[in-house]
Amino acid sequence: MIITIDGPAGAGKSSIARRVASELGFEFLDTGAMYRAVTWGAMQRGLGWDDVEQLVDFAGTVNLVWQDDRIYLDDQDISEEIRTPQVTGNIRYLADPPPIRERMSAQQRRIAVGRDIVTEGRDQGTEVFPDAECKIFLTASPEERARRRQQQLAAAGRVMTVEEILTAQNQRDLEDRMRPVGRLRAASDAIVVQTDGMTPEEVCQEVLRLVRTCLPAHAANSDSADASS
């Protein structure tokens, strides 16, 4: 079963998706780690960031494995290596070009085959897993998301005003909505959860409640498929 949790930056998708996966006994598919892994691999091979054709070929053919919350590239566990500032600075070269995103989406679908997965992003329910059994679109007002981000940064010892965060966030929202591939939008069959005024625990419990309404239908469909096979 596939559960997608999409939404804008700062909506808390990653933490909620991980908690939902843990509560249900599902796996959490860290698509961000996949992009980082391919970025790291391209850096190791000295691929040119302006050679999109070469990057597309690499993203489509490299052997990616996601297992037990670890990412492997060509059988090498690189879960720690992908978190460096250098990878962070270069990931945009893999995350933005539409042909590369298409190859990465195919990799994500391949990894998810036959597994119970919770995945999050901005296009998981629309483009990567359009047939997912349960789709959630998690959102909040720009001001609410900026306040949450300020609190996260403060906890990490970084000081930014809400206004500074909001300006950068609004620009990213605009860019995400305008992307030719993987643009930010709710799937037509997604359940939109507006989280203003909710605590993380309340958001998690609401998402779990919604997801559990999908589980009986999934079980019934699985039983029907088994009976007809």
How many helices?
A: 10
The tally of beta strands, per DSSP, is: 8
Q: DSSP strand (E) fraction?
A: 5-15%
- What is the C-alpha radius of gyration, as a whole number of Å? 18 Å
Q: Would you summarize the structure shown here?
A:
55% of the residues lie in helices and 14% in strands.
Features:
229 residues; disordered C terminus; 14% strand
Outline the fold blueprint.
Blueprint: E1 2-6, H1 13-24, E2 27-29, H2 31-45, H3 52-61, E3 64-67, E4 70-73, E5 76-77, H4 85-90, H5 92-95, H6 98-112, E6 117-121, H7 124-128, E7 134-139, H8 142-155, H9 162-178, E8 191-194, H10 200-228
Parallel strand pairs: 1-6, 1-7, 2-6, 7-8
Antiparallel strand pairs: 3-4, 4-5
Helix pairs in contact: 1-10, 3-6, 8-9
Q: Can you put this structure into words, describing what you see?
A:
- This protein is of the alpha/beta class and 229 residues long.
- 55% of the residues lie in helices and 14% in strands.
- The protein contains 10 helices and 8 strands.
- The protein has helices at residues 13-24, 31-45, 52-61, 85-90, 92-95, 98-112, 124-128, 142-155, 162-178, 200-228; strands spanning 2-6, 27-29, 64-67, 70-73, 76-77, 117-121, 134-139, 191-194.
- The longest helix has 29 residues, at 200-228.
